[in-house]
Design a protein that fits this description.
- The chain has a 9-stranded mixed beta sheet, sandwiched between helices. Strands 2-3 form a two-stranded antiparallel ribbon.
- β4, α5 and β5 form a beta-alpha-beta unit.
- By secondary structure, it is of the alpha+beta class.
- Helices cover 37% and strands 24% of the residues.
- It has 11 helices and 13 strands.
- The protein has 2 domains: 195 residues, 3-Layer(aba) Sandwich (Peroxisomal Thiolase, Chain A, domain 1), CATH 3.40.47.10; 145 residues, Thiolase/Chalcone synthase (Peroxisomal Thiolase, Chain A, domain 1).
Length: 375
């Protein structure tokens, strides 16, 4: 016998109900605050040494590769898989993932412990742990292992945000800030990226060359609490250019993850960045000149130049982004939090000063958050 299910019925919708929330005034809530930051990196090596000791031969002493390598604004990078000591080019993805967990956990623990100490929090205070990564996975994952290493409560809520790429720290921060505000819980957000595990076999692919020249390893952590001193998370704006999504990709292959990075990315971002910034600021009665600091993900020198030109920023406004690129390279999702930490340490911010946090990545996606510095 064949049983035919009854047709689904919809409850009647009151006229205008679907749009009523759009007209309601926003509810004033206690803003969540980034109360502490922490970071950790593996041993480093100079960009010049990496070229001379490994990548010059990797690229057959190709002159274009050499010029691109030395022109990306990086002095030092850090990696758990130093190619001068361990050659991962022929490793399968399984082996790379095992190394991610082995090498990632100590970095995650160091960044998280430093963050909790900076915020004056104990492990028992943490109600939500969020781990962000696009460079490694396991189940049980790093979130479970880190919770155990830190001695978090067995009832801690956990969230893993995977494979979003370089911009992931901003939506992750928005998510944990919403949770801290709605539930009154302290949240710990960890971004850990180990792209050194994803070096690919030699090729003449310019996009892969640029990826090898730019990316490096780091872990960053942020403690988010309801209210208090630090960086209030006030608003978030996103823009995704689906038409150009294929210009930046991060594909899982049998030999690790492979980057696709079109040289046209800065031109596509150029179309959207001014609109995103205007939307973010206008909703709070702010203009570009009101912003005290810009924590912008340094995807590369050309991207920083485009953002400065389109938004109308002086060169000094992106000094911390350039210095993080110089000292660490592009560490994917962890990078913009390194920039925010450097701003906190190097700029004398006043109470209430607006700060813009901005990052971009595969999709092609641009995210920006408005923060307020609170003493």
């Amino acid at each position: 016998m064949i049983v035919v299910p009854a047709p689904l019925t919809q409850a009647p919708v009151r006229a205008g109900a679907s749009a009523a929330w759009r007209q309601a005034p926003p509810r004033e809530l206690l803003a969540a605050t980034v109360a502490g930051l922490g970071s950790a990196v593996p041993p480093g090596r100079s960009q010049a040494d990496l070229w001379e000791s490994f990548f010059a031969e990797h690229y057959g002493h190709w002159d274009l590769a050499r010029r691109l390598w030395h022109g990306c604004g990086i002095d030092t990078r850090h990696g758990v898989a130093d190619p001068c000591e361990v050659d991962v080019r022929e490793w399968g993805t399984e082996r790379r993932m095992r190394r991610f967990n082995e090498q990632g956990l100590p970095l995650a623990r160091e960044a998280a412990q430093g963050c909790l100490a900076d915020a004056g929090l104990a492990p028992a205070d943490v109600g939500l742990l969020t781990v962000v990564s696009c460079t490694g996975y396991a189940t049980p994952g790093l979130d479970v292992m880190l919770a155990g290493e830190l001695g978090l409560d067995a009832g801690v809520q956990r969230l893993h945000i995977g494979h979003m790429g370089c911009y992931a720290a901003v939506p992750a921060l928005a998510t944990v800030a919403d949770a801290a505000t709605a539930r009154g819980k302290a949240a710990l957000m960890l971004c850990i990226e180990l792209p050194s595990l994803h070096i690919q076999a030699p090729s003449e692919d310019i996009e892969q060359l640029v990826a090898h020249a730019l990316f490096a390893d780091a872990a960053t952590a942020a403690a988010v609490v309801p209210g208090g001193a630090g960086f209030e998370v006030r608003d978030v704006v996103a823009r995704t250019d689906i038409e150009h999504a294929a210009m930046m990709t991060w594909d899982v292959t049998d030999h690790g993850f492979r980057m696709g990075l079109s040289p046209q990315v800065p031109q596509v971002l150029e179309r959207h960045v001014a609109g995103v910034v205007s939307e973010l600021l206008a909703g709070h009665g702010l203009a570009v000149e009101d912003v005290a600091a810009w924590a912008v993900h340094p995807g590369g020198p050309a991207i920083l130049e485009v953002i400065a030109e389109r938004v109308g920023l002086e060169q000094a406004a992106l000094a911390e982004s350039r210095s993080v690129l110089r000292d660490f390279g592009n560490c994917s999702s962890a990078t913009v939090m390194l920039v925010l930490d450097r701003i906190r340490r190097e700029r004398d911010l006043l109470d209430g000063d607006p700060v813009v946090l901005m990052a971009f990545g595969p999709g092609l996606t641009l995210y920006a958050a408005l923060l307020r510095h609170r003493r």
